[in-house]
Design brief:
single chain; 376 residues; alpha/beta; FAD/NAD(P)-binding domain; D-Amino Acid Oxidase, Chain A, domain 2; 2 domains; 8-stranded mixed β-sheet; 6-stranded mixed β-sheet; 19 strands; 27% strand; globular; binds flavin-adenine dinucleotide
Length: 376
C-alpha cells in the first residue's frame, strides 16, 4: 500500500467533501472511517441547504456553500433527492414582520432571491398552514437533499478522482504525520485532516486549552406518505432563536416536504446529551409545535423517529484549519446544525489551506486560533 499524501479521518459529509476537493487537486487521499460512509451525524440530518446570517462569517460560509451545492445539483443522482423547493421563514405575529423586511433587504443586497409574503401570500403558498399567520420570507434559492446519499456521492467522486476509502477502520490518535489506529498499527501520511465529527477533538495528540465543543442533540420524525402537506422547507422565525440560544433545551417548528409525500418534522436542540435515545417528552413537544402550524399533520402517522448529535462550538462557527503546534494536522469539524450545507465550503477551505493559497472567502473566522486560551 503506497503512502497517502493526505489522510482524512471520518467519512461523514465534511470528510467526504474534503476528500473530494483534495483528490481533485491530485493528492493521493485515503479516508479512514470507523463505520461506513455518512453513518454519523450526517445520517441523522435534515438536509436543508440553507443561508443564515447570524454573523458575517456564518453568512459567507453558508452562502458560498449553497452556491456550490446549487452548481452541483443537476449532477447529483436521483438517490440524493435534491429538491429546489426553497424555504419560507414564518412570521407568526405582526411584530416579526420587521425581521422579515430587514432580512429581505439584507439578502437582496447580496443578490439573493427572496420574497416578502403577507398573510394572504403565505396562505396561498402553503394552504395547510393554520390561518392568520402574519406572513413570511421566501428564500427561493434554498434547497433540500438526502444527506447520507450526498455523502456517498461525494466519496464516490473522490474515489473516481483517485482517493481510497477504508471503512470499518477506527482511529485512536491523529498527528501531522499520520494516524494510530485502534488496533495499534500506524498509517503515515504527508498531512492529516481530522473530520471525525463529534469525536474529532478526542483524537488530537493532546487536549488544546480553549478548544472544545458540546454535543447538541436533535430529534426528528418522519410521517408516512400522504397527500402533499407542504411545498417548501418551512420554519418559524423562532427557530433561529432556538438554534442560537445557549438554553439547555429548545423546540421549534421546522418541517420539510419529501418527494415521497412524507413530511420530515423537526426540530429540537438539547445541550450536553451524549446518548442518542429518543426522548418521548421532547418528541411530543416537537410534534405538538408542528401541529400548531400545520393542523393536518395530526392526521398523519409518524413512522420513524431518531436523534443526532450536532458538534456545537460556543461561537456557532465551525473549526476549520491547522491545529496549532502540529504541523500538517488540520481540523474540519464543529459545524453544529449547518454541516450538510457548509461541507462543500469546508472542503474548499481545507484544500486551499493544504495548497497554501488564498480562498474565495476569508478563512480567518473559522480558524482554531480564535478559540485558544492566551498563554501566560
Ligand atoms: C437533527 C439534525 C438535523 C440537522 N439538519 C441539518 C440541515 O438541515 N442542514 C445542515 O446543513 N445541517 C444539518 N444538521 C447538521 C449536520 O448533520 C452536521 O453538521 C454534519 O452532519 C456534520 O458532519 P461531519 O462529517 O462533521 O460529522 P459526521 O457525519 O458525524 O461524520 C464524522 C464521521 O467520523 C467517523 N468517526 C468518528 N470517530 C472516528 C474514529 N475514531 N475513527 C474513524 N472514524 C471516526 C464517524 O463514524 C462519522 O462517520 C443537522 C443535524 C442534526 C442532528
Amino acid at each position: 500500500m503506497s503512502l497517502p499524501d493526505v489522510l482524512v479521518v471520518g467519512g461523514g459529509i465534511v470528510g467526504a467533501a474534503c476528500a473530494l476537493e483534495l483528490a481533485r487537486e491530485g493528492h493521493r487521499v485515503e479516508v479512514l472511517e470507523r463505520g461506513f460512509t455518512g453513518c454519523g451525524t450526517t445520517a441523522t440530518a435534515m438536509g436543508h441547504i440553507i443561508v443564515l446570517h447570524d454573523s458575517q462569517a456564518q453568512f459567507r460560509l453558508t452562502r458560498w456553500s449553497q452556491e456550490l451545492w446549487s452548481a452541483l445539483a443537476d449532477e447529483l443522482p436521483g438517490e440524493v433527492e435534491v429538491d429546489r423547493c426553497g424555504c419560507i421563514w414564518i412570521a407568526s405575529e405582526e411584530s416579526q414582520m420587521d425581521w422579515v423586511r430587514d432580512k429581505a433587504a439584507l439578502y437582496r443586497s447580496h443578490g439573493i432571491e427572496v420574497e416578502v409574503l403577507d398573510s394572504l401570500g403565505l396562505a396561498q403558498a402553503e394552504p395547510s398552514l393554520r390561518p392568520n399567520l402574519a406572513g413570511g420570507l421566501r428564500m427561493r434559492e434554498d434547497l433540500v437533499l438526502y444527506p447520507p446519499a450526498a455523502a456517498r456521492w461525494l466519496v464516490q467522486r473522490a474515489v473516481d478522482a483517485g482517493a481510497t476509502i477504508r471503512t470499518g477502520v477506527s482511529v485512536r490518535r491523529v498527528s501531522g504525520a499520520g494516524a494510530t489506529l485502534d488496533d495499534g498499527s500506524t498509517r503515515a501520511a504527508g498531512c492529516v485532516v481530522d473530520a471525525a465529527g463529534t469525536k474529532a477533538l478526542e483524537l488530537l495528540p493532546e487536549p488544546i486549552p480553549g478548544l472544545q465543543f458540546r454535543p447538541r442533540k436533535g430529534h426528528l420524525a418522519i410521517t408516512d406518505r400522504g397527500p402533499r402537506r407542504c411545498w417548501h422547507q418551512l420554519a418559524e422565525i423562532g427557530y433561529l432563536a432556538s438554534a442560537h440560544t445557549h438554553a439547555q433545551t429548545s423546540v421549534a417548528f421546522n418541517v420539510q416536504p419529501r418527494r415521497t409525500g412524507q413530511v420530515l418534522v423537526g426540530s429540537s436542540r438539547q445541550y450536553d446529551r451524549h446518548d442518542t435515545r429518543v426522548e418521548p417528552e421532547i418528541l411530543a413537544r416537537m410534534l405538538r409545535r408542528a401541529i400548531e402550524f400545520i393542523p393536518a399533520l395530526a392526521e398523519m402517522r409518524v413512522t420513524r423517529t431518531w436523534t443526532g448529535l450536532r458538534p456545537a462550538t460556543d461561537d456557532r462557527l465551525p473549526l476549520i484549519g491547522p491545529v496549532p503546534g502540529h504541523s500538517g494536522l488540520y481540523l474540519a469539524t464543529g459545524h453544529e446544525g449547518l454541516g450538510i450545507t457548509t461541507s462543500l465550503g469546508t472542503g474548499r477551505l481545507i484544500a486551499d489551506m493544504v495548497a497554501g493559497r488564498s480562498s474565495a472567502i476569508d478563512p480567518a473566522p473559522y480558524r482554531l486560533d480564535r478559540c485558544l486560551e492566551p498563554q501566560a
